[in-house]
Structure formats: structure tokens, C-alpha cells
Amino acid sequence: MRNIFLFIRRYFNFLFFLALQVLALSFLFRYNKFHEAAFMGVASEITGRVNNRYNTIEYYFKLKKTNEALVKENVELRTLLRSNYLQSDTMHLVAVDSIRVDSLIKYQKYTYLEAKVVGGFITTQTNFFTIHRGTDQGVNVDMAVISPQGVVGRVVNSSANFSTVMTMLSRQFKVDAKLKNSGERGIISWDGVSPDFIQMRNIPKNIKIAKGDSVLTSELSSIFPANIMVGTVDSVFNDPSTNFFTLRLRSSTNFSTVQFVYVVQNKQIEEQRKLESATQKINE
Fold it and tell me: Does 138 map to a domain?
């Protein structure tokens, strides 16, 4: 404390000058419109440059995780190539359905479009991402969004070049899923409590379930391709009043680190919806 007082005493004139200078500048910028506008312009420019540098540095340190995810996904995709399914017996060749997909585009059901996450916001119990893809790039409402790790959400609004995505961490989000081992189906939802866990409901109690079991999207989902990772079983809740388990799942997607996603288009969804709508009218 003594040293502080000695420092102030020694440099009192200089410190007093600085205080008066700051006070004078504040009066100048506050009560003079021209100087105020000039100051705000310079301040905004400096703030923008600092934020840009910060974002660049932050993005650089996240590149390792992003690259690891992309490499892992590329390895998985390469294992699905037709050339990998040739048996040692040259008289037998495994026929893969992707032959039609490769040669005749009309048989292709899903298409994928990469997109960068450029923003995010939360409203009560609903979490949204903003991606830099819109209607000009072919993105429309109700398209599925996935990451290299698994399910992310679905598109709920689109402009020319941007789209908002309702993530799986939203009370309104639902998707049909299945247990990888048994194939038993249930509904995925979020209870609005923890961003690390989601719920899977309507699983019969006669099904054997173990911690760590994988949960995938099912064939009944109209927008998500089947067998996309949803999460892994963390715990099982037994409600004595029902014949079903409620599973708590650890989400496969880490929503706090997602930078790139894939928008998935089901090219046959309109045909499916028209047929289902016509069938409902017949039964009315």
C-alpha cells in the first residue's frame, strides 16, 4: 500500500493530466455530433478487427477436431465403395444396390449438401442453428440436417442464402429411431433439462437394453436416412405404471462444437406424402 501512495505522489502531475485529458475527450465526443460519429466509426472498425482476429484464432484451434471428424467419415464412406465387396472367389461377385444409384440418378433417394454453421440462438426450450445455405442452393423447410457424428436437426426456415435449423435439443423436435441391436423402435425427444442427454420413449419392457447400446434413425423417418447415429444409452428408467421403458441417451452430436453439417434431401418425400394424404382421405 505504501508503494502505491509513493507511486501516485511521484507521478501525480502526469496522472492528473491523463485524467483531465480523458474527461475532456469524453465531453468532446459526447456533445459534438461530428466527433462522436468519427469516434464511433473508429471504435467499430477496431472492434471489428479484434473480433475477426479472435474468430480466426478460435477457428484455427478447432480445425484439428473438425479434420478428425472429416477423416473418420471419409474412412467410413470409403468402406462402402463397390470395389470393397469383391470376394476372394473370382467366380462370385457381391451385387450392391448402389449400381443403380451410380448409373441412374432417378433411383437415388437422398442427396447431401454441405453447409457451414454461422450462428446460433436459443428461445426458451428451442435451440436453433443458422447455416450458410438457403433456397438458392436448394435448401427448403423440413430437410434433415446431420453432422459427421449423427443427427443435428431439421430445417424450419429458409431465405435465399441462409437457413435456420431446429436442433435435436428442442422440445418440439421428434424423430423416429431404433435400437441398433434389437431393432425396436421408439420416439426421440428432449426434456429441456441437459444439453448432453435426450430421451427415447415407448420401448417395451421385454427388450434387453444395456448401457452403451447405440440408437439409430429408423426406416420410418420421412426426412432422415435410416441408420444415422442418434446417441448411446446412458440409463434406463422403469415406470411401473406403463409397459414401456424410457431411455436416457447421450447425444452423439456435440452441439457446442458443430461447425459443418450436411443438409439431406429426400427426393421421394413429396410422392410419399401425396400417397399418404390420398389414403387418409379414402378412410375419412
Answer: no
* Residue spans of beta strands (DSSP E) within the chain: 110-123, 126-131, 144-146, 151-158, 163-170, 175-179, 185-189, 197-204, 214-217, 229-238, 244-251, 260-266
Q: What is the pLDDT of residue 29?
A: 63
State the burial class of residue 217 (Cβ atoms within 10 Å of its Cβ: 0-12, 13-18, 19+): buried
Q: What is the DSSP letter of 225?
A: P
In this predicted model, what pLDDT tens digit does every residue of 224-259 receive, in sequence order? 988 999 999 999 998 888 889 999 999 999 888 888
Nearest to 190 by CA among 169, 166, 175: 169
Domains: count for the chain: 2
The reply to whether 36 falls in a domain is yes
pTM for the complete prediction?
A: 0.65
C-alpha span between 208 and 122 (Å, rounded): 36
Q: For cell 468402406, name the residue.
A: 79
Q: Which three cell numbers stand for residue 148?
A: 459427421
Residue 95 reports pLDDT greater than 90: no
Residue 150 lies in a domain: no
Q: What dihedral angle (degrees, nearest 10) is formed by the CA atoms of 188, 190, 194, 195? A: 80
The pLDDT tens digits of the residues spanning 20-33 come to 888 877 776 666 66
Residue 153 located in a structural domain: no
* CATH code, 189: 2.40.10.350
